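Retro notes (design track)

What went well: tokenization of the new backbones is finally stable.
What didn't: we kept losing track of which sequence belonged to which structure.
Fix going forward: every design gets posted as structure first, then sequence, in one message. First example under the new rule, 206 residues:
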């Protein structure tokens, strides 16, 4: 049965955030809100957590996982970014975007696209996620909480608790969050390629 953490959306309680992070460090798979929609998250080195995300979402090996970062400094350790891409990403973050880029050696191999050796990265504009990332001190491995055969992600904490009670370890709820997944921009070829139109405005990348 999943733990349920009720977090204040503007002033996240330190004790509750600490308990969530303790669960993550203990190997938990969590469902948590972001500035786009709910996501599944675990530590980047949590092989079992990664396998469980693949199972819940029925993902194949070509799926791009996302490393959710606190800031640009953390993001820069995980992916290779040239000057033009740096400026484009810097202008769009924090925000509802996921960027696909070539990964550095800091990224565990099981997270990489098998052929391209790329990974997704993002810096969310969400108070609760930033509090979690501050406390965790490392990126959080994530994937949109979009169930197989459903067109829209789950957006209500209580519904997620009800439906995924036996497949996730914790649900973090801070009230309303977004209802659209992130906009995905692939920079791995040097130029911006819009892979998915979502919550982030695509105009700067067109």
């Amino acid at each position: 049965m999943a733990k349920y953490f009720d977090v204040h959306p503007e002033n996240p309680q330190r004790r509750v955030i600490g308990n969530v992070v303790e669960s993550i460090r203990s190997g938990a798979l969590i469902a948590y809100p972001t500035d786009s929609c709910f996501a599944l998250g675990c530590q980047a080195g949590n092989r079992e957590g990664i396998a469980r995300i693949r199972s819940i979402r029925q993902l194949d090996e070509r799926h791009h996982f996302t490393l959710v970062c606190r800031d640009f400094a953390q993001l820069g350790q995980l992916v290779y970014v040239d000057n033009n891409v740096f400026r484009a990403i810097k202008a769009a973050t924090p925000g509802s975007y996921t960027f696909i880029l070539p990964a550095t050696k800091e990224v565990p191999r099981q997270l990489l696209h098998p052929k391209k050796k790329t990974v997704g990265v993002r810096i969310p504009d969400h108070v609760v996620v930033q509090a979690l990332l501050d406390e965790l001190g490392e990126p959080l491995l994530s994937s949109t909480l979009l169930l197989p055969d459903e067109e829209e992600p789950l957006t209500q904490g209580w519904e997620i608790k009800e439906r995924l009670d036996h497949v996730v370890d914790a649900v973090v709820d801070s009230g309303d969050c977004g209802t659209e997944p992130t906009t995905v921009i692939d920079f791995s070829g040097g130029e911006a390629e819009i892979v998915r139109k979502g919550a982030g405005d695509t105009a700067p990348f067109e």
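Added context from the reviewer: The chain is about 25% helix and 20% strand.
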